[in-house]
Amino acid sequence: MATKSSPAKESARKRVEKDRRQFLALTMSNPNYFGNFQESPFEAVKSMTSNTTYEALTCVGYHPQMRRLSAVVALKQDTGYGGGLCSDGSLEYVRFYLSTDNGVTWDDQGMLSFRAHDIPGDKPLLYSLSLDVSPHETWCKVENLILVRAILSWNQPIPANMPNFLPVYGNVLEAHIQVAPRKAFVLGELLEAFKVTLPKEWVSMLDVEQTLAMKPPAPLPVHLRAKAYQDKGVPAHRYLFPELMQSGVQPMLNPEALGASLTQMFTEWDIDLAAVIAKLMKTDGDTRYEELLCVGLNPHRNRLEAVFKTKLPNGYSGNLCSSGSQEYVAFWVDWGDGAGWTYAGTSAVNVHDVAHMPADGLFYMASVPVELSAHRRPCAQGAVTARVRAILSWETPPPAGNPNFVPTWGNREERLVHIMPGAQVPAHDHSAYLESVGNMAVCDINHNTGLASGHGILANFVANQAPFGGTVTITGYILNPPNSMAGAPPFRYRIWVRQLSPVAGAWQPLSNDFDIVVTEQNGVGIPVQHHQTQSIDSNGYYTYLEQAYPNQWREVAGNVLARWHTSAPMDGLWELRMEVLYPDGTHAQARTPLCVGGASYTTVRVRVDNRRPNADLTITGFVRQGVTYPAGACGTFRVGDIIQGTYQADDIHFGHTWFILAPSAQANGASVHKTPVVLNFHQEQGTWELDTSVMDPCGYTVFLYAIDRTIINSGAIGWRKSQAVGFCLRPAHVEPGTVHAPALVE
Of 456, 450, 716, 493, which is closest to residue 586 (Cα–Cα)? Predict the structure, then answer.
């Protein structure tokens, strides 16, 4: 359904408070204008944090089998987001942290963002962002519970490694999650963990590096369930529910269908079957054990994502060493085209009994891909929204054809989502698009210079006119791929590269093998994740693996198409393109998406830089009692001397420099102070000095580090080069030794 602008749009914009309208200007002039930085040299002008008038985090959840965190964000207002759909709008940032000690310490997992715009119409609009993580996994006897903290911040990037950061606009949300047990162990790790000491002759003969797979967990037999739950308050119509459903006792509830073994168990445990059935018949939408909380649309992954929580320690068919039970979430979409609810698929999450259940419960997420290309519209046609219905059902998947299904255990939620603008694509359109290179969106790479500026798509870095080096990951997608999981022939593709300068070269295809992570679901159930090697076929093409059909979907983590290995001899400006081969033998060239300003290209140009910066560091002298003396490296000085030197660093894509003094403990807080004389995009040179007054007598090394702006291996910024000079420091009352200068006389 398309939403058009209201005549009162201008007056609504005026109603947005000044703090919001002028937010960027205020925070650029004073980063701590609103007092949301706990330690800042800037004095706050106005105290305001965690304002959720416009946006709020509503849920955070985790899928243990997919190792994926998800946060749902609600946008609440028509205006206040920096402009309409055809403008840049503003950014909503979410940063995730994990804590294994219940909030004492936090590990930064990275930051994601999506663009928000002024959109008139019904509210709230629900968005979601998801991040693949790798929490430590252990064996099933350990209830591996982790605390997640998500921080939402409007138009102000959240600094890394600041878990206590308070946003001006936005909020902080925490949730406990459960990490799936490990499926395999290295033999040596097992021996060490269980303190097993083997005879030396055995150690020399065993391959302690071999991986041992755990057996697939088995279901907890129903009689053991009955015994385990006897004094836990779990009613029989809960723990017997899977068997009752499998026996087909609903809706007719035929006791004879239960079988002799189950009937015998009822007798042994004095279970009144009629009473169990009566309670089951009265149970609809029971949320004592689990409850669906939030639903959103992920604009980057094109996935519907739902967050639910489990509430009680028991009632999920066994602990983490058993197969537990399944929480199913089915999704339907009303596109506003008069067709009503369209089934989008069902996914599942494996849950278990958790003895140490947190008071707020455990939060999970489930998701399915959704094909949006046919529903997008250009921004000038107004916003496109859709209603999403999700149904949570324990141990019974909701029927695909019944969007009004009422689960026995679970509930239903319905939310409004926004489909990001773009060209409308019919089902027969199989256009291909290059999405990112080196973890940078192709629209953030200058087509003339090949340099990138902006935030990394997945990796946590910010590029500033950055070239690329090391392994350059290339991502993209093909619209409306066939259902190859059902036997249809897949699409195939090639990535071509050529050098443009300093020496022009011919196009050449990439042909190297590379690893990818594939997550797929074939049927109703839990998605399966595995590693896979992509190799070219006999004709030089890679196979396109992704597809999005209800209950038959496959995604490649990061939409990876190729990994291009570059090295120093390849430095310069390069160009790359993607060729698609369709099953009918026809070919097509991929394009970039439309960038701001309407530009789109059939190639992406990138500048390659695999050379480290040059760096030089010297000691030139020292100051004692106001007198300057010449000196050099490896000299001996006295506590209280001010050691002086020069430094320089240069690179065609120079970044910055910094100093480190080691050992730091004996330095007692002393640090090197530098004074740049020349500083630009290509070099830095200047002087440095070190006041030794507070330092202990010891041997020290001053390190100069130079870093450039290159995006390395698609995941971090900067090739580095270091230089070092050493010296000895004696007590102040002891005569100094030789310092590469004439001997000093007291």
Answer: 493
If asked whether residues 201 and 173 sit together in one domain, one would say no
Residue 100 CB-density burial (10 A; 0-12 exposed, 13-18 middle, 19+ buried): middle
Asked if the structure places residue 424 within a domain, the reply is: no
Query: What is the amino acid identity at position 223?
Result: H
Q: Are 104 and 116 in the same domain?
A: yes
Nearest to 383 by CA among 373, 393, 375, 391: 375
Residue 118 falls inside a structural domain: yes
Contact 107, 142 (CB under 8 A): no
Task: Tell me what pLDDT residue 733 has.
Answer: 75
The pLDDT of residue 258 is 55
3 state SS for 574-630: EEEEEEEECCCCCEEECECCCCCCCCCCCCEEEEECCCCCEEEEEEEEEEECCEEEE
- Among 1-5, 374-378, 470-474, the minimum mean pLDDT is found in 1-5
User: No. of H helices and E strands in the chain?
Assistant: 11, 45
- For 437-457, what is each residue's pLDDT tens digit? 999 999 999 999 999 999 888
* Listed residue (429, 235, 239, 230) closest to 324, CA to CA: 239
Distance CA 454, CA 474 (A): 17
145 φ/ψ angles, rounded to the nearest 5 degrees? -105, 135
Length of the chain: 746
CATH number of the domain enclosing 639: 2.60.40.10
The DSSP result for 518-557, as a single string, is EEEEESSB--EEEEEEE---TTS-EEP--EEETTEEEEEG
Asked whether 495 and 479 are in contact (CB, 8 A), the reply is: no
How far is the C-alpha of 385 from the C-alpha of 396, rounded, in Å? Answer: 30
**Cα–Cα distance, 454 to 456 (Å, whole number):** 7
One domain for residues 138 and 23: yes
Averaged pLDDT, 346-355: 97
Predicted confidence at residue 745, as pLDDT, reads 30
Question: Cβ contacts of residue 543 below 8 Å, gap of 6+?
Answer: 490, 491, 492, 534, 537
> Average pLDDT, stretch 369-379?
91
Supply the mean pLDDT for the chain.
91
Q: Identify whether residues 232 and 357 lie together within a single domain.
A: no
Number of domains in the chain: 5
Whether residue 425 lies inside any domain: the answer is no
Measured distance CA(34)–CA(43) in Å, rounded: 9
Tell me the mean pLDDT in the region 609-615.
97
The structure's pTM equals 0.83
Mark whether 476 and 544 lie in a shared domain.
yes
Q: Which two tokens stand for residue 453?
A: 């500026």
CA dist., res. 309 & res. 288, Å (int):
10
Residue-range definition of the domain harbouring residue 202: 184-213
Q: Which residues contact 166 (CB under 8 A, 6 or more apart)?
A: 36, 49, 50, 172
> Do 590 and 708 reside in the same domain of the chain?
no
Residue ranges of the alpha helices (H) in 609-714? Answer: 664-667
Same domain, 560 and 581: yes
